[in-house]
Write a structure and sequence with these properties.
Uridine Diphospho-n-acetylenolpyruvylglucosamine Reductase, domain 2; alpha+beta; 8-stranded antiparallel β-sheet; 5 domains; Alpha-Beta Plaits; single chain
Length: 482
């Protein structure tokens, strides 16, 4: 795989891509790197700041059809050139960075709705559709995607699938893999593959799910069929204060294991409640806080579910704080990703999301937060805000957001500090019984830990799949720890 492309080779590539998608839809190396620096991870930003970009594509091609994508991938095979797909570039792990050069495949202009089935409540859509606009357009017809990631303003539908993402309504409606019925995929050899129309079938393994979370290594998703829901007839909010985190976790466990399904259940530890949630809701929060929201098409059922959940919280010492906190959080749920809430250089920052079953999750919280707090010399002033934002009927996850007010003014030293926190937290999570990521994907940040998660046999199996479908290692080479 060539990693250094000469000027003449680059111009030849640009010309060849122009014949496929039109010259107006191709950027050369210089322009392409300025316009597309990569995703929204701290790693991307800090490397770009020091003029050592992680994303070093030689050309950016913007296709508008599946056939154009397939032709680009075939060209890449002919020339032994890497291909890195990019959508809304909202990821935070570095997955969309074209670290090996070659072609960056900009899918953001592939955003047609191919079919809307109001009887089955499904929709077939192309990968570049912006998630926020997608929801707005569906709401106008009384429908909802129910996938509300914090990155909705920037994220593309295809990017959500590629990173196996989640949204604030996941506790009821599931992560993105639970929304997907089928996919159209351009394989790494440039063939167009139409996967089974629905996931519940006995026609062999579930190949659609193999693409979800693969971050492009097995091909390019060019369309997907997704489940929809009606816009709910009612939403019921509430919030509870708990004396300790253990009781808040136990309330969540009982809610989930007894068949209740809140659309939102977010449990903030004391520091996150008083330094993050409080900034948005301004309700005088003093400690561990749980925000709940139930929704649905049948108001009486919403009320019944909510009442049972509230009773569970109260039996565990939860003090009812009222609907206003939840309603305000809902209205402001995206403000945390904009100034003055969102971090910017010279700060250092990262979110880590690790997931475990109920038997391990509290110990995971204790071990991971301890590891993060003790990873650096106190002089760096690391702060940590942790909440539990996604719940399952078998467990939950922690979402620690750490920051350093001012990082080192040296790239190598800054990355070394960053990597020390990630290493200590990831290993602590693994040793405490967690899976190293819940919904942010792998990217560059966690690639070194895939072997820790999958083991030798798992990596051999993953590598065998990769080699079998991508013999020339065209698609996203070096990603997923391969």
């Amino acid at each position: 795989m060539a990693e250094i492309m000469s000027e003449s080779e680059m111009k030849s590539l640009v010309d060849a891509l122009g014949k496929i998608v039109g010259p107006q839809n191709v950027l050369d190396r210089a322009t392409g790197r300025k316009k597309f620096i990569g995703d929204q991870s701290w790693l991307t930003y800090v490397h770009a700041h020091f003029n050592k970009p992680l994303s070093v594509q030689d050309a950016v091609a913007t296709p508008h059809t599946t056939e154009e994508v397939a032709a680009i991938v075939r060209l890449a095979n002919e020339r032994n050139i890497p291909v890195t797909p990019i959508g809304g570039a909202s990821g935070v792990q570095g997955a969309a960075d074209a670290t090996k050069g070659g072609i960056m495949l900009n899918l953001y202009e592939m955003k047609k709705i191919r079919n809307l089935d109001k009887k089955s409540l499904t929709i077939t859509v192309e990968p570049g559709y912006n998630v926020k606009q997608f929801e707005i357009d569906l709401n106008a017809q009384g429908l909802s995607f129910t996938h509300y990631p914090a990155s909705a303003e920037w994220a593309s539908v295809g990017g959500c699938l590629a990173a196996r993402g989640s949204g604030v309504l996941s506790t009821k409606y599931g992560n993105i893999q639970d929304h997907v019925l089928s996919c159209e995929v351009v394989t790494p050899t440039g063939e167009i593959m139409h996967l089974p129309r629905v996931p519940k079938h006995g026609a062999g393994p579930e190949l659609t799910q193999l693409q979800i979370g693969a971050e492009g290594i097995f091909g390019v998703i060019t369309a997907c069929t997704l489940k929809l829901r009606n816009v709910p007839a009612k939403r019921a909010f509430n919030a509870f204060h708990f004396e300790n985190l253990s009781n808040g976790i136990e309330a969540g466990r009982l809610i989930m294991t007894t068949g209740l399904r809140p659309a939102v259940m977010r449990l903030y530890d004391e520091y996150a409640a008083t330094h993050s949630l409080e900034r948005a809701v301004q309700a005088g929060l003093t400690g561990v806080t749980k925000v709940l929201m139930f929704d649905g098409d049948h108001p009486s059922l919403v009320d019944a579910e909510a009442a049972i959940a509230y009773d569970i919280c109260k039996k565990l010492g939860g003090k009812e704080l009222g609907a206003k906190i939840g309603e305000t959080w809902w209205e402001k749920r995206y403000v945390f990703y904009h100034p003055p809430y969102a971090p910017e250089l010279p700060q250092m920052w990262c979110t880590m999301d690790v997931v475990a079953d109920f038997a391990h999750i509290e110990n995971v919280y204790n071990k991971v937060t301890y590891a993060m707090k003790h990873a650096l010399d106190p002089k760096w002033g690391l702060h940590l805000k942790t909440h539990f934002s996604h719940w399952y009927d078998w467990g939950s996850m922690i979402y620690p957001r750490w920051g350093v007010p001012v990082g080192p003014n040296d790239l190598d030293e800054a990355v070394k500090l960053h990597n020390k926190i990630i290493h200590d937290a990831t290993m602590a999570a693994h040793e405490a019984g967690a899976v190293i990521n819940d919904h942010h994907g792998v990217g560059l940040r966690l690639a070194p830990y895939m072997k820790v998660e999958l083991g030798e046999a798992g990596m051999k199996f993953l590598g065998g799949l990769k080699k079998g479908v991508d013999p020339k290692n065209i698609m996203c080479p070096g990603k997923m720890g391969l």
